[in-house]
Write a structure and sequence with these properties.
- The N and C termini lie far apart (81 Å).
- The protein has 5 helices and 7 strands.
- The chain has 121 residues and is α+β, with helices and mostly antiparallel strands.
- It is rod-shaped, with a radius of gyration of 24 Å.
């Protein structure tokens, strides 16, 4: 195993991206940083101890390269290749917009109870 590996291969080995071409595309779009420096090409070399910052979905991932790896193995093997330095994920906006189960229109039984309480039923 060499002491450096192409960044697109490492991102693919670590299972951050579904395909190597997608990892290469993210690198070519200048959306990946290695130790604070913007990566312009997918052939940029990463070494053990480098800190990578890149977008994944709606969150920004910050990871430290723990090992380089030599293949795209199972998920358990891929998780040994990096140390996640990202904070906890931000709460999802859909979860914040969800109402409590008691909020909203009353059920038929609730309406009957209200009518009895008000004295109209």
């Amino acid at each position: 195993m060499s002491e450096a590996l192409r960044i697109d291969r490492w991102l693919w080995f670590a299972r951050f991206f579904r395909s190597r071409s997608l990892a290469a595309k993210i690198c070519a779009e200048r959306r990946v940083r290695v130790n604070g420096t913007i990566v312009t090409k997918p052939n940029h070399r990463v070494r053990t101890g480098d800190i990578l910052t890149f977008p994944q979905g709606r969150e920004i991932r910050v990871v430290r390269v723990a090992e380089l790896g030599f293949r795209r193995g199972p998920a358990a093997e891929a998780q040994t290749l990096f140390e996640d330095l990202s904070g906890p994920p931000a709460p999802d906006q859909a979860d914040l917009a969800r109402r409590d189960s008691g909020a909203g229109r009353p059920t038929k039984a609730d309406r009957r109870d209200i009518m009895r309480f008000v004295g109209k039923g």
